User: What shape does this take?
Amino acid sequence: MIYNQRERFLPADATAAFTYVALGNSVVYGTGASSRSRGYVPLLHHQLQTVYPHARLHNLGSNGATAEQVLTQQLAQAVALRPHLVTLSVGPNDLTQARPLYAYTHDLEDIFERLTSQTEAVVVASTLPDITRTPLVAGLDSLTRQLIGDQVQRFNGALYAVAGQHDVEVVDVYEPSRQMAKGDTSLTAADGYHPSDDGYAHWAELMWRGIERRLPQAQ
Assistant: This one.
């Protein structure tokens, strides 16, 4: 079946079976949290169950995943699960691996096209955070930080553009990450890069706002 590109909302029947699939990189996997259950995806799943008690989670995120790896290693399984909700966080590994912007953009186009044409899922994607504010990157020289910061904004611009063509709900974690990072190291894990438990809790709150905009009563 090919689904159309109408504006999508989550199911009206809160008592029905519900499948949530999470795609993406290490923040989807939960790296940096004290346990994987403290990552943003399990926290989001718990919140989702307050609306859809039978919601089941399939977390396909993996450490180091790029958009290309989401496309080639995660997407087929996601489609086969016939999800009602898909979340996606990807991009920093594309950037640090120096993948061209056009390659990242093309992969996003393929991911969103397949999700919206082959499933009925609401798709919610997060932007890249401002990784220059993390302790690990903040310790680099100013020119390197500037180059990374400029590229983050370019990648986010591409995400917004492609998402707008496929009715994908975009959640901005870039600006909040800039604000939360100011003098608050409690939001970053010991590795100086990934979110801590508190950081993931903030990320989950932001993602939930995007999901709320697609609940049936929001129509």
User: Anything to note?
Assistant: The two ends are 24 Å apart (CA to CA). The mean pLDDT is 94. The first strand starts at residue 18 and ends at 24. Residues 18-218 form a domain with the Rossmann fold fold (CATH 3.40.50.1110).
